Amino acid sequence: ADRVSALEEYGYEVDYLTKYQDDNPHVIGIYSPQSLTNSLRKVKSLLPSCLVNILRRLCPFLFPKDNYIRGNGVITSVSEDSPAVDNESLLSLIEPIYSFVFVLAWQDMITSQSLKAIYEKLKVPIILTLVDFQPITGGCYYFGDCRNFENECGNCPALERKAMNDMTRYNFRIKKKIYNSINCGFMVNPYSLDFIKKAKIISENRLQVSYYTMNENLYRPLDKSSCRNFFRIENHKKYVIFSRFTSVGHERKGYLYLLAAINIFAEIIGLQKEEVVLLLAGGQDESFESKFNIDVFNVGMLNVDELIKAYSAADLFLSSSIDDAGPSMVNQSIMCGTPVLSFNIGSALYMIDNGETGYRVPVKDVEAMANCLAVHFNLSNDERKVMQHKCRCKGLETGSRGEFAKKLVLFAEELSKYEHSHL
Fold first, then answer.
1. How many CB atoms lie under 10 A from the CB of residue 119?
2. Which contiguous run of DSSP H or E holds residue 393?
3. For the chain, which ranges sit under pLDDT 50?
4. Is beta strand 295-298 parallel, antiparallel or unpaired with respect to 316-319?
5. DSSP 3-state assignment of 317?
6. In degrees to the nearest 10, what's the CA dihedral of 178, 200, 147, 115?
7. How confident is the model over 20-45, as pLDDT tens digits?
8. Is the distance from CB of 109 to CB of 85 less than 8 angstroms?
9. Where are the alpha helices (DSSP H) in 47-111?
């Protein structure tokens, strides 16, 4: 939504192609309306599987495909040759009236084969971004310690049977061939840029650095005292750490490192730990929360307005992810004027200037993370205010909608020149 509004403010009329229909005439729904799909799920749960299969064959447009393999990792694109929406249906929804196409998340809808069909119909630049790494691998969202994508995938650890020329290698090579046969490019953050270069899936002159985009008028610093009152944080809690939690099973999010770092920090500050509270948003797990040696207040799921209040209520946002292209909460927190403590990955690499907009520490180094918590805890109020100001300036510099729209349009123009000279 922020990207759409950014382009609209820049003077473009934008259509948004997505899964479900909407009342907005500029939203083009590939599948049935969300309400109908929810009703179908209930019907499916009551019908015998044989009847569901008949209904699926008769009305395939009502049933989004689940193209996933779940093993030691997740393969989200089983076959580049079989997009969830066939090209004929897809192309019937769009007309050749656009200046360029910008692609965000595309799972459960299209594949690179779809991009080729779109390009052949519209003949305009297609610009992709990486909300995860699926567009530059043989099918996985995140690759952890695996680096097979640097050699066109194959021998995938997520598949039961290992083979160099498995489906992931096939998928990778199809993507690479298509990316280099159509006029397309990638806008990615500096962290992802390094991986896409190593993948060698597209020529480097079709890469552009960009940042996470958000509404800077919505994500902004609010009054800290009133935000703490909103969450009923007691007055004797003078230091608030904010973090996200889903479940311990999400190893990539590093929650056990969060636990270890907080408890080491509690030991460092001794009796002062009574002044500290950890504000957790998201999932709830009392057995996990009880292991912290400081008070924990889980506020559950938050809407956007509540999330922004949580950033402003906090003195520091702690990101414990150990494998992430973002997370976006790093950028959001800094736009809200709240410093971030993170492992040295993802958005932290370019959003966190050590000691100015937060702190970066080596991945999984919980002692370094605890020490940075102690350093920030011991800052004076004036020193914290200086950091908060620097955070807001950093957020506006990197994540404003105007900056995104300008970069995107200029990149599309550059790709148009590239098309005339190379394709």
1. 20
2. helix 381-399
3. 35
4. unpaired
5. strand
6. -20
7. 888 888 999 887 555 455 555 556 66
8. yes
9. 49-58, 87-91
